[in-house]
Design a protein that fits this description.
alpha/beta, D-amino Acid Aminotransferase, Chain A, domain 1, Glucose Oxidase, domain 1, 30 helices, about 35% helix, Dna Ligase, domain 1, 7-stranded mixed barrel, single chain
Length: about 800
């Protein structure tokens, strides 16, 4: 228990503080006290400290007469005028800093600081954080509106910094924010938190959310990490590492790190020694930039704490309360600490039944790329702002392009049609404010201020997954709004076809019964990019150019095949987690030989075939010595998703399986790598895309748990049409009578054997009447492309009603 001898009107120790004390100590300090008191027993570590109360702030203003001076200055402000706002803010801050703290208040702060130090000879370094009484409310975060000071040492420095904190209640952005939210400028008071420093300048720190910040997916913890003190991540001064963890299986003992993204982490904020400043930024060596700032164990520990904190606040508030937290790792002890926590105020307030989707109708030249924020699209002329002093030049509807933003930029950000920054991750200032304002933002582009020209018209797209793109010109796009509560759902299971894991969390909110086809090919070609055999043979590769490409992509991996397993597992796990506990059926790799050859290092391993479409593909590869060990890497990835991450809703599917004997060989290969059909609930499906699959459906049903009709290949082989040939493309039609008869037979035979059968081919996505035909045949599930789901659902319902179901 902290000392209580200095407890008074002006000082309140964390151990004596709870969430009920927000009017006295502000949201930040009340939250620190709540966690310090209530969550230590569950292992959550919060550095000790005390709050200088809102009463102290009010008494300071009253005794010095500064409160009356503030009223006079605010009376001169011209609403909506940025120059007037800046002048008023500057004058108020100067008045506060010029005043002397009352002697009694100075003594109370000094005494509490000495008790925190514990030793009269020790001048403890502390973090001094502003905590407004209107902060961290459910409908207004006030995050970043006031100042934080790190590495504060000694009585004199502490007292001076406290005045600067009081003054920061009247930064330009804070005045503007309170005006927009309808708060009286003098009604809000400021408390100050004085807290033991965590020596993250010698390790790492960052931000953590117990909800996905882009989609509102509530079962994920998002963690950002960079080296040094945490202000760089909060302010968006660096591009941090990013990790995503799945909460439900984490809570049951699994290790479900869904994503690891390496950030550039260019600088780190450290203690300044003898320079007169408290902190300074220094470059991070290349070797450290090339590795993650946290270990897997540390990622999982932080994620567990996020769950504990979220559960506690949800219980206290009586409603689901996702949290926005800051964490730090002490480089001296190796311990992790939570240094702030507040309710998340953007995604948690959204009505997820009201869906709004943006989609580009055309494409253009991509000028810059970065991390997408907001899942929206915006367009307008570019305005490059290099310094806060030029913000008054920013005009309504322009695209704000900057190195980074901070709270001083918010008055201009409200006028923007979109925002683009060189630096920052998904939890930086630009990202947080863009979400709150409903803007598209692309952050961490690195060179946006150099590439984008002032006045140039651009389109900023955050509607294409986690990579945000800035296109040249004003492109056409559609906005679709849908009320999911009014949508009638059919009895036939309707599932989705998905390739891109980056879109999975967003697509999980669509009214579907899971994923009928998750393709490995997209993950391999866009995330891995390297032929698996080249990774297996890395040490003996003679092509130095290929080896250099592999080195660049696999930086940080001494085990090169492990890179393939890691990336594939993360992509598949993200899709499986997004739709959990609904079924997710992943098709093992189905590249053709020419497509495999195009992967880095792939040329020597692939034969040249006249018709790759009916050549060395699918099941035939998996047990063949040419690819057998590479297939083993795929199996290892799937086993990791199911066994280590706990995502047993994952089912596997074998493509292009020509014979029953071939199916048995593939199942034996899978079992060799620990994927045993029936073990731990594992189901294995087969693609029904070859006439032999239909004709011998009874026999295939003996070794597989279900079937998924691939209408593209089935049409190709029934009609004898190479679907890659433009000359005979007009003959290719899934609605052909012969194709429909083959599909009808497949459904009848499979269901007669008591197995499940669905379709994941293109036909029902392209032709709603084809979906109706499938319903009439009694198919169990129809898997659609996401963009066709909403228009096809009513057709399926209509067919069911006509059949009296």
């Amino acid at each position: 228990m902290s000392p209580s001898t200095t407890t008074s009107r002006w000082i309140r120790w964390f151990a004596e503080t709870t969430l009920a004390d927000i009017p006295l100590v502000g949201g930040k300090n009340a939250s620190l006290g709540e966690m310090y008191r209530e969550l230590a027993a569950q292992g959550v570590q919060v550095p000790n400290g005390f709050a200088i109360t809102a009463d102290a702030y009010r008494d300071f203003l009253s005794e010095t007469g500064v409160d009356r001076e503030i009223e006079r200055i605010l009376a001169r402000r011209k609403p909506g005028d940025v120059t007037s706002l800046q002048a008023c803010g500057r004058a108020i801050r100067h008045a506060i800093i010029a005043a002397e703290l009352p002697v009694g208040l100075q003594a109370a702060i000094s005494q509490a600081y000495e008790e925190l130090c514990g030793d009269p000879e020790l001048l403890l370094d502390v973090a001094v954080r502003s905590s407004a009484t209107a902060e961290d409310l459910p409908d207004a975060s006030f995050a970043g509106q006031q100042e934080t000071y790190l590495n504060v040492q000694g009585h004199g420095q502490l007292l001076e910094v406290c005045k600067r904190c009081f003054a920061s209640l009247f930064t330009d952005r804070a005045i503007s924010y309170r005006t927009d939210k309808g708060f009286d400028q003098l009604e809000i008071a400021l408390s100050i938190g004085v807290q033991r420093m965590v020596r993250s300048d010698l390790a790492s720190s960052g931000v953590m959310f117990s909800i996905d910040t882009e989609t509102g997916f509530k079962d994920a913890v998002l963690i950002n990490a960079a080296y040094g003190l945490g202000e760089n991540v909060v302010q968006g001064s660096v591009n941090p590492d990013e990790f995503l963890v799945f909460k439900p299986t984490l809570k049951t003992g699994f290790r479900p790190i869904l994503q690891r993204r390496l950030g550039s982490k260019e600088f780190k904020l450290i203690y300044d020694v003898g320079g007169g400043r408290m902190t300074r930024n220094v470059p991070v060596p290349d070797e450290a930039r090339g590795r993650f700032a946290l270990t897997d164990d540390e990622i999982l520990q932080l994620a567990r704490w996020a769950c504990v904190i979220e559960d506690h606040y949800s219980q206290k508030r009586g409603t689901f309360t996702p949290m926005d937290m800051e964490w730090a790792k002490d480089g001296l002890t190796g311990e992790l600490w939570i240094v702030q926590a507040r309710p998340e105020t953007v995604q948690s307030r959204k009505n997820l039944q009201q869906q709004e989707t943006f989609e580009l109708r055309e494409r253009g030249d991509v000028l810059v790329r970065g991390r997408s924020v907001g899942e929206r699209i915006g367009a307008g002329p570019v305005r490059v702002i290099t310094d806060v002093s030029h913000l008054s030049e920013f005009l309504e509807g322009e695209v704000l392009v900057a190195d980074k933003t901070d709270p001083d930029w918010e008055p201009a950000m409200k006028k923007a049609s979109a925002i683009v920054t060189n630096r920052g991750g998904r939890t930086c200032h630009a990202a947080i404010v863009s979400r709150e304002l409903g803007l598209a933002a692309v952050v961490g582009c690195e060179n946006a201020t150099e590439v984008l020209r002032p006045g140039q018209t651009v389109t900023v797209s955050c509607a294409e997954g986690e990579e945000g793109r800035v296109y040249d010109g004003r492109l056409q796009f559609d906005v679709q709004r849908l009320d999911l509560e009014c949508l009638q759902r059919p009895k036939t299971h309707v599932m989705l076809n998905i390739g891109n894991p980056d879109e999975a969390l967003r697509l999980s909110f669509l009214p579907s019964d899971g994923v009928g086809l998750a393709r490995e090919e997209f993950i391999i070609s866009t995330s891995i990019k390297i032929h698996p055999q080249a990774l297996l043979d890395y040490d003996s590769l003679s092509d130095l150019q290929v080896k250099s490409q592999i080195d660049r992509l696999t930086a940080g991996y001494t085990d090169k095949p492990g890179y393939f397993v890691d990336k594939l597992a993360q992509g598949v796990a993200t899709i499986a987690a997004a739709f959990s506990p609904r079924d997710v059926i992943v098709r093992m790799s189905d590249f053709k030989t020419n497509e495999y050859a195009n992967l880095i290092g792939g040329q020597p391993y692939e034969p040249t075939e006249e018709n790759p479409m009916i050549g060395f593909r699918g099941a035939s590869r998996y047990y063949n010595e040419r690819y057998r060990e590479a297939f083993g890497l795929e199996c290892q990835a799937m086993k990791r998703v199911r066994d280590e991450m706990g995502l047993t809703n994952l089912k596997l599917m074998i493509p292009f399986c020509r014979t029953v004997e071939e199916g048995r060989k593939v199942l034996a290969e899978m079992a060799r790598h620990g994927l045993v059909r029936g073990q731990n609930g594992l189901e294995v499906y087969v693609m029904c895309e070859i006439p032999a699959n239909v004709i011998l459906a009874d026999e295939f049903a003996e070794i597989f748990d279900g079937f998924s009709i691939g209408s593209n290949d089935l049409t190709q082989l029934v009609l004898g049409v190479d679907r890659d040939s433009e000359i005979v493309a007009h003959v290719f039609d899934e609605r052909n009578g012969a194709v429909k008869e083959m599909i009808a037979q497949a459904i009848q035979r499979v269901k007669a054997k008591g197995r499940k059968i669905g379709i994941c081919g293109q036909a029902p996505s392209d032709y709603p009447e084809f979906a109706q035909f499938l319903v009439e045949q009694g198919i169990d599930s129809i898997s659609l492309n996401p963009d066709s789901l909403l228009r096809t659902l009513p057709k399926i319902v209509e067919a069911e009603q006509r059949l009296g179901r």
